[in-house]
Design goal:
The chain is an alpha/beta fold and about 220 residues long. It has two domains: about 110 residues, Rossmann fold, CATH 3.40.50; about 110 residues, Rossmann fold (3-Layer(aba) Sandwich). It is built from nine helices and eight strands. Helix 2 packs parallel to helix 3, helix 4 crosses helix 9 and helix 7 crosses helix 8. The chain is globular, with a radius of gyration of 16 Å.
Length: about 220
Amino acid sequence: MSARILVMNPNSSVQVTAAIDAAMQPLRLPGGPAIDVDRLPSGPPSIGTQQDVDGVVMKLVEWVRGDDADAFVLACFSDPGLHAVREAAIGRPVFGIAECGILRALMLGERFGIIALSGRSVQRQQRYVRQMGVAERYAGSVPVDATAGETAGETAGEAIRERLAQAGRRLAEQGADVLVLGCAGMAGHRRALEEMCGRPVVEPTQWAVVAAIGAVVLGRG
């Protein structure tokens, strides 16, 4: 049986899940692992607060325990329950999109900035960057004051795209030479934002899945 990667959206939004699924299409390669994208129907419509993050952790743990995928990707920029889910996966690789997106950004430039959903998202991102030990290369996070669903997909609208671009330009002024999208629902805006902001833009779910493909194909070592 061919290998399978499960991309787990911890919120319940059908629109965000569809945006994530569309972003996976270039990575569905002939002969490569199958890439499934699914959502948590009992999750919140958007992960906005720390309570939202904490509230989905055990649900994700149970989801992983009951699924036979070869690798998992947590498609939320808060990386909810990353270490708990890794325990539940019992040796199968689990990737958080924030961790993977930030690590990818460090390969592309000296300083990175994150386009965030909200002020509360910024607080979590600041903590996470400190925990990863990369604060010296962090130019900051700028919120767009939106929900995940409002940013999702190519059809999310020019108004939200301009708000994302404004955040990206502000980060560039703060010294960011690489931008990271701080929500999986923003995936459909990556190419446009690169042109609008004049900076490389990392779509973190794609890079987490790239890491998962490598782990499945090459082995976890």
